[in-house]
Amino acid sequence: AGSPQTASLSGDSAFSITLTASQSSVTVLEGTAQARFTLSASSSSGFTGSIVLGCANVAPATCAFNPASISPGQSSTLTVGNLGAVTSSDLNFTVTGTAAGTSQATSSSSTTASGTSTATLSLSVQFQNFTITATPASASIDAGQAAKYTLTVTPVNGFAMPVSLACSGAPKGTTCSFSSSTLQISASGSAQATLTVQTTARSLAHPPASEWRGRPFSGLPVWLGCALLALLLISAVSRRKTPAAPFRLALLALLVCVAAAACGGGGGGGGISPGTNNGTPAGTYTLVVTATAQSLSHSSRVTLQVQ
Fold it and tell me: Which of 105, 125, 151, 219 could form an S-S bond across to 91 if both were Cys, CB 3.0 to 4.6 Å?
């Protein structure tokens, strides 16, 4: 952009110097450590001496020139470092060139000039990045329903590359899905995706039959049968008319009945289990949506309230 540039001049000399850059603005991905510019010098008054290069208003970034001074017709590589310390979306700074000496006579002028001349050149580093927002910020639903959020990814300084989406923090019995898990961002505008958070309805599952052992009244029919057999035996003994074989069979049946009742229908505490809840628990949850592109990662938080 805008190269070469004519530098502004100051000083008390009659000669002039000019600094130009291969490009006046360099764009890098945010988090990049450094950026480079190529600088050149010239003089329209026949000056051939040394021009010392420097930077102004560049902090917290740093400047390094290679070489640190040049003559008209020569070039230097400027490395702007420590860019990770810059917190804004761009860095605007000034390069200075200072020359002290005497200009040589040219074919159009037989005079010479001496003194000091300074040239300045405005440069900038633009940081490409993106932002992510989610709307609505909060949603309230019943268990078994789905909540939907709209995610918007917006480029900064011409950012244009794929962005991957992920969701975390979902409660038990809940799933996250995206209308598109990867968004291709263009420098010209934002891109959107829909996040769907699906919950599971709560239901009560009865405990298996083995869990009823030890519950009150679970062996009541067996005990009633035992009591009936006992009454029959008492009646038979009191009459003493019952043959020996049937009497022994009845007594054996009573013993089996008592054993069965003791093993499977004995009393115990605890009451009937309320069952197992296999749905999404009621509560308020914070979900984190993360967007990632190369070394860049940004997140947006949404709230999900399950009734």
Answer: 125
Taking the whole predicted model, whether its pTM rises above 0.70 is answered as no
Please, which residues have CB within 8 angstroms of residue 281's CB and are 6 or more apart in sequence? 171, 172, 173, 202, 306
Question: Residue 154: what are its φ and ψ, rounded to 5°?
Answer: -120, 130
Q: Report how far residue 39's alpha carbon sits from residue 77's, in angstroms, rounded to the nearest whole number.
A: 6
Q: Which residues of 161-181 are buried (b: 16+ CB within 10 A; e: fewer)?
A: bebebebeebbebbebebeee
Q: pLDDT by residue (tens digit) across 14-73?
A: 578 999 999 999 999 999 999 999 999 999 888 999 999 999 999 999 999 999 999 999
Q: What is the Cα–Cα distance from 153 to 189, expressed in whole angstroms?
A: 9
Q: What is the DSSP letter of 104?
A: P
**Close Cβ partners of 72 (under 8 Å, ≥ 6 residues apart):** 17, 41, 42, 43, 47, 48, 51
Q: Residue 219's closest CA among 174, 168, 258, 171?
A: 258
DSSP state of 143: T
pLDDT digits over 178-232, tens only? Answer: 999 999 999 989 999 999 999 999 986 555 555 445 555 455 666 566 667 666 6
Q: In sequence order, what DSSP letters do the residues of 280-302 get, joined into one string? A: PPSEEEEEEEEEEETTEEEEEEE
Residues 43, 101 contacting (CB under 8 angstroms)? no
68: CB partners within 8 A, 6+ apart: 52, 53, 76
Amino acid residing at 55:
C
User: Do residues 299 and 132 make contact, with C-beta atoms less than 8 angstroms apart?
Assistant: yes
